[in-house]
Amino acid sequence: MSPNDRSGSGTIVAPEASTDPLPWHAQPPDQALAALDSPDDGLTPDEAAERRRRYGPNRLTPPPRRSALMRFLAQFDNLLIYVLIGAGLVTVMLGEFVDAAVIAGVVLINAAIGYVQEGKAEQALDAIRNMLSPQAVVLRGGHQVTVPAEDLVPGDRVLLASGDKVPADLRLVRVKGLRVQEAALTGESVPVAKSADAVAADAPLAERGGMAYSGTLVAQGQATGVVVATGDKTELGRIGTLLAGVEELTTPLLAQMAVFGRWLTIGILALTALTFLYGSLVRGEHWADMVMAAVGLAVAAIPEGLPAVMTITLAIGVTRMARRNAIIRRLPAVETLGSVGIICSDKTGTLTRNELVVQTVVTVAGECAVTGTGYRPEGEFRRDGKALDPGADPVLTELARAALLCNDAELQRGEDGGDGKGDGSGGWTVAGDPTDGALLALGVKAGLDVREEAARCPRTDVIPFESEHKYMATLHHDHEGHGVLYVKGAPERVLSMCAHVRAVDGGSAPLDAGRWLARVEDLAARGQRVLALAARPARTGQTVLDMEDVREGLTLLGLCGFIDPAREEAVAAVAQCQAAGIRVKMITGDHAGTAQAIGRQFNLSGDAVSGSELDRLDDAALVAVARDADVFARTTPEHKLRLVRALQTAGHTVAMTGDGVNDAPALKRADVGVAMGCKGTEAAKEAASMVLADDNFASIAHAVEEGRTVYDNLRKTILFMLPTNGAQALVILVAVLAGYTLPITPVQILWVNMVTAVTLGLALAFEPPEAAVMKRPPRPQDEPILPGFLIGRMVLAMALLVATSFGFFLLHEGHGDPTPVARTMAVNALVMGEIFFLLNARAVTASVLNRQGLFGSRPVWISIGLMLVFQLAFTYAPPLQSLFGTAAVDWTQWVAITAAGLAIFLAVEAEKAVTRRVMGRRG
C-alpha cells in the first residue's frame, strides 16, 4: 500500500506490511522516514519523478462541473414551468402565435434570472485549491532545490522557514523554534509550538505537535519535515473532499414553495381537464375553443410572475443587508435568515477579536487588570477597581520593560492611522508572534517607549524560544556596561528557574513556588494563557548567553494573563439574538477552559463539551448533546459538520459562522453559512451563503431582522398575487361552466399577470419591518406560508374580484356593447380591484384605514401610478388594442370601476377587523 493510499487520519502501513498501523503523528521520526523510504540526502530526481507518476501531482482534484448549458436547462426543471411550456406548445399548434410568444418570454426571463444567480455558487473548492503553496524548498540528491509545490511526493524532505506556507502534510523530523499558525485549520488563536516528538495516536488535530499541515503558515523558526501526504490525501484535501460531499439544503421558503407548487400544479391540471371535458362533452362546444379556454385557465391560474417577484424581493433584501455589512452570496439565504433558530459560531475571530491582549498582570503587590483593545497600545492599569500609575510601581515598570526587550515582534499602524475596521483597534497590527505583540502593547501602556528602551539597553545575545525548553531569554547592556538577563516563558518552566521574587521595594524576597502556581491555575481557570517573566543581573563582562546562565537563580517579576478578548459588539449582538429566541452556540478548536471562559462572557450556559467526548456519542445521543450544550471545544471539521447535522435533525434552522478552512464544510451544510469578510479565508467565504464585510457578529443580528422582514414581505406578495391569479382562472371556469363567452382572453390574462408582477407585486417588497420583529420567536420550519385565516381572505378576495370582473362583462354585453368593450371593462375592473387589494395587503392583520396605512409607502403609490399608465395604454393605444383585442371606454366607466374597487377594499378591511377580534379572543 502506498503512503498516499492511507486513511485520512494519516494511518501508515509500511511497505513491509506492518500489522499494527499507527497514525503519522504517533510514529517516531526515524520510523516514519523508514516507512517512506526517505534517505538522509533526500530523494533522487529520478525517484521523485517515479513517485510523482505513481501518486500524482500535489494538488486538489477538481470535482465534475455542470456545463453552462446544463445549468441553464436546469432552470426549466419546475412543474409550473412545465405546465406553461405545455400551454405554449398547444397555442402554437392552434396558431395562436401572440399568446405563445408572450408565454415563451415569461419562461425565458424566469430561466435567465435563475441562471445568473447560480453563476458563482460552486467556487469553494477552487478557493481551497489555491491555498496550496506555489513553491517549496526540498532536499533532492543532497542539494537544496526550490520546486513547484505540486511536484512534491511522499518521502520528500521539505525545509521550512519563517513566513513559509506549508506545502504538504509533513512529519517533522528536525525542529528549531518552530511555531505554526494553524488558526485556519484548527481554530487555535495563537501559533502552535512544534517539536519532532511523537504524540498519542488519538491526539486531536490541534495537539499533533510533530505534524505541519498543508496550507498553514510558519510564524517562527525552522524545521525539516518529510512529506507524508499530498493533494487530496492531506488534511486540507480531506476538508475539500468533505466539502464536496456536503449537500446544500433547500431553504424553508423554497421547500414550502415546492410543496405548494406541486399541489397548485395538480389543481390547475385538474381544473384544466375539467374545463375541457365539461365544455366539450356537456356544453357541446367545439374542441378547439375548449382547448384555448383550458389554456387560458392554466395561464390564468399559474402565477408565472411569482418566481421573478420572489427573486426581486430577495434582491432588495440583499441590498438592504449590504448597507449593514452583510453580503449575501445566495439569494435564498435572505429569507432563511428570518427562520434561524440557532447560530453556531466559531470563537476565534468571530466572537473574539483574534488579537491577543494582556488582560491581567500579577506581581508581588497583587493583581492588576489591564484595559485596552487589541494591539492598540492604549489603556490603563487598575487594581481593586482603581486606576494605577505604573510609573509609581517599580516592579510593574520592570516587568513592562522585560516585556518590551525580551521580544521579537513589532507593532505596526496603518498608513492613515485610522480605525478603518471600526473595531477600536486603531489600525494597529503585529508583525511577529501575537504573544509578543500583546507584550509590546503592555509595555507602551506602562509608559515606556519601545525605541528608547531598545536604544538605552540594546540586546547583546538571545536564546530563541523553542518548544523543547519553553522559554526565551535575552541579554542586554546599557551604555555604562551594566548587563541584565530577561526571561519569559511557560510559568512552570520559569518558576523552576527562579529562586526569588521581586519585592515591592525593588529588592528580592524568597519565592513561594506553590503560591505562584496556584495563581497560574487561577488565571488559567478564567480562560487566560499565562506567561511568566523573570530577570537577573548579568555577570561582569558577559557578552554571550547560554542556557546555563538562566538555569537557576532568576528573580520572578510576575505573571501576564493573555486572552483573545470578546468583541464588545458581539456580546450585545448575542444578547439581542437571545432576546429574539435564537440560541447561540460556540464551536471552536481552542482549549476547553478558554472556550468556557469566553462562553461565560456571552451568557452561554453549561460546561464545554470536547471533541473527544463527541467522538464517543452515536448520532442519537449527539442530537441531545447538541441541543442542550452551548460550548464545544477542541473540535475538528467533522465535529462541526456533525453538530450542524444533529441540530438540523432536531428540526432547527441553523446558521453557522466561521472564518477558517476548517469551517468550510459546516458553512456549506448549514441552512445559512456566514463567513468573515476581513479575516476569513477564501475557502470559508466561497462555502458560505453570507459574508460579513466587517467581521462583526452584530451584523448577523441585523441580517436576521432583515431576513424576517423579507419573509413578511414575501408572504404579503404571495397573499396578493395568488388571489389575483385565482380570480382570473375562476372567471374563465365560471364562463365555461355557465356557457358564456370568455370575459378575458388568455393573452389579456398574460398581460395582467406580467404588468401586475413588475408593478403592484413588486411594491410590497419595499415594506418596512413590522413592529417588534426582533421580539417574536423564530418561525417554525413547518409553519405554512399562508395560515388558515389568510387562505380564507384569499377566497374572499377571489370571489370579490371574480364578481366584479364578470359583472362588468355581463353588464356591458347585456347593454349590447361589442365584446372588445366588455372585455376591456372586465380587465380594467379586475386591475382596479387588485390596486385596492394591494393596499389591504400592506398589513396582514392590522387595519390600513389610517394615514400610514394608506399613504406611508412611496413604492406602493409609484406602482399604482405605473399600473394605471399601463392600463390606459392597454385601453387607448391602437397597437395594444390590436394586439390584445381591447377598445376605448369613456371616463364614466372609470368612475364605476373605481367604486367597485373601493367596495372590495372595504370588504377586506371588514374581514380583517373580524379576524382581529377572533384572534384576540383566542389569545
Automatic annotation (TrEMBL):
Topology within the bilayer: Multi-pass membrane protein
Main localization of the protein described in the UniProt heading: membrane
Stretches for region Disordered: 1-62
Entry's transmembrane regions: 72-94, 100-116, 263-281, 293-319, 718-742, 748-766, 786-809, 821-839, 860-879, 891-908
Listed Gene3D superfamilies: Calcium-transporting ATPase, cytoplasmic domain N (3.40.1110.10), Calcium-transporting ATPase, cytoplasmic transduction domain A (2.70.150.10), Calcium-transporting ATPase, transmembrane domain (1.20.1110.10), HAD superfamily/HAD-like (3.40.50.1000)
Biased composition (Polar residues): 1-10
GO terms for biological process, alphabetical: intracellular potassium ion homeostasis; intracellular sodium ion homeostasis; potassium ion import across plasma membrane; proton transmembrane transport; sodium ion export across plasma membrane
Family (UniProt): Belongs to the cation transport ATPase (P-type) (TC 3.A.3) family. Type IIA subfamily.
Name of this chain's protein: Carbonate dehydratase
Organism: Azospirillum brasilense
